[in-house]
Structure formats: C-alpha cells, structure tokens
Write a structure and sequence with these properties.
Layout lengths: L12 H11 L5 H13 L2 E5 H8 L9 H11 L7 E5 L8 E5 L1 H10 L4 E8 L44
Helix pairs in contact: 1-2, 3-5, 4-5
Length: 168
C-alpha cells in the first residue's frame, strides 16, 4: 500500500505528457505514444522508493536539489504525489528500466522515508503478445489396418505362390 501521507493513486494528465516527451529521446514518437497509452491502462503496483532507484541505477537526489525541494514544498502545502511512470525492460544481464516520469517525486519520498511503498504504473518495453488462437483439434488417427495373412503353401513342396522366371 502507498504511504497515504504523501501519495495518491490518481494520475495527473501532465505526467503522461511529460513521460511521452522523455521517452521520445530514446524511442520513436510512435513507440513513446504507444508506451504511454499502455501506461494509462496499467494497474497501480507498489515498490519501495529505494528499490526503484537501485533498479534504475539512479542516485537518490538530496534535499538540496531544486527539483526535490519543489516536490517537498508541494507536500508541505498539502499536495499529494501522483504515481510514478516506468518502462521495464526484459531483464537479464542488463535490465533496461526507465523512470519515464516521477524521478524527483521518488527522490523526495526516499528522503522522507526510503522504505515508503510508492505507487507505480509499470509497463514492459515490448507490448505483450496476444494469446495465440487455439489450434483446431487434430482428427483422430485412422485405426490400424489388419495385417494380411501370409500366403498358403501349395503342394507338397511348401513353396508359396510366386512367379518363376524362366531359366531358374
């Protein structure tokens, strides 16, 4: 759960605009727009402020940073912080994790309480693949054909019917 003293689950529309502008530096404008569209529909998830900063490999800005000061001033004036917008990479050896909007809000929250659970809207870098359509059931295999009975011998020689080639 979010620390209700500082955070709200309501997103400000300007957050999406700022996220799209920021993502436009590393993605095409179409990709940035598509990521933000998915962020609008993403559910809220909660993570510790310190963990979000660690995964993003960003430093926690201190209380003297002008942007953090502005966020802290907003908090002291009674304004609640909106959720952070994040693009998550595929993982592996080098996780690509981008805070598209809310870095200064995270830093201010981290300054107040590094173990505060903060609300995030997080989307994967790649759009989830739609589920594959179920394949039609394969028809049942035909029953095995019965094995024909061997040919019966003729005469006393016990030879089976066969064509003889002349000269043999």
């Amino acid at each position: 759960m979010a620390n209700k003293e500082y955070w709200t689950d309501e997103q400000e529309d300007q957050d999406y605009q700022l996220a799209e502008g920021y993502l436009g530096f590393t993605y095409s404008s179409e990709e940035a727009r598509e990521l933000v569209t998915r962020m609008r529909a993403a559910p809220i998830v909660y993570h510790y402020a310190a963990n979000v900063l660690r995964v993003a490999a960003l430093p926690a800005l201190g209380e003297s940073n002008i942007h953090v000061v502005r966020v802290l001033d907003d908090l002291h004036a009674g304004k609640l912080l909106s959720p952070v917008l994040i693009v998550r990479g595929a993982g592996g050896a080098r996780l690509n994790f981008t805070i598209a909007d809310g870095y200064f809000r995270i830093c201010a929250s981290n300054y107040l309480d590094e173990l505060a659970n903060i609300p995030c809207r997080m989307v994967p870098k790649e759009a989830p693949k739609p589920p594959e359509e179920p394949q039609p059931a394969k028809p049942a295999p035909e029953p095995a054909k019965p094995i024909p009975e061997p040919a019966k011998p003729i005469g006393d020689a016990g030879l089976t019917r066969m064509r003889r080639r002349p000269g043999l």
